[in-house]
Amino acid sequence: MLRQLRNSRRMGLQLSKSRLAALQPLAGCNPMLARKVVRNERLGLNRSVRPQHMQYVVVMPIVVACLMAFGIVRFIGMGTRNKSLYIFGGTALVAGMTMKSLGQVRGARKRLGQ
To answer: What is the pLDDT along the chain (114 residues), one digit of tens a residue?
Structure first.
């Protein structure tokens, strides 16, 4: 992306290295955003450094670990013939898998802070 921002010199814009470094987070890894950032910089619209790309928090490893723990509780209940552990583990595993499946449904996505 730095290459796209450096190509701003073709547009008649002289940017210092520090300004290029400040504009880099705005473009992320998207060449279309880099062109937009350069165009906005030329027009004088980039006075606040605010990333335009979306940021997500990845919680899938935590969800999978919890599901594995419920599965282990179920098998411990099955091995020790403890009916309450077996029922709780199975019910929690089914509920967790249902929530995981419902969490993958694509709805209206919003950026953080909106």
So the answer is: 566 666 676 777 777 777 777 777 777 777 777 778 777 877 777 665 555 556 677 788 888 898 899 999 999 998 999 999 999 988 998 988 888 888 776 665 555 554
Contact 10, 34 (CB under 8 A): no
- Output the pTM of the full model: 0.44
- What DSSP string runs through 7-48? GGGGGT----HHHHHHHHHHHTT-HHHHHHHHHHHHHT---S
User: What distance in Å separates the CA atoms of residue 7 and residue 95, rounded to the nearest whole number?
Assistant: 53
CA gap 55, 4 in Å, rounded: 22
Alpha carbons 44 and 69: distance in angstroms, whole number: 54
φ/ψ of 46, rounded to 5, equals -95, 60
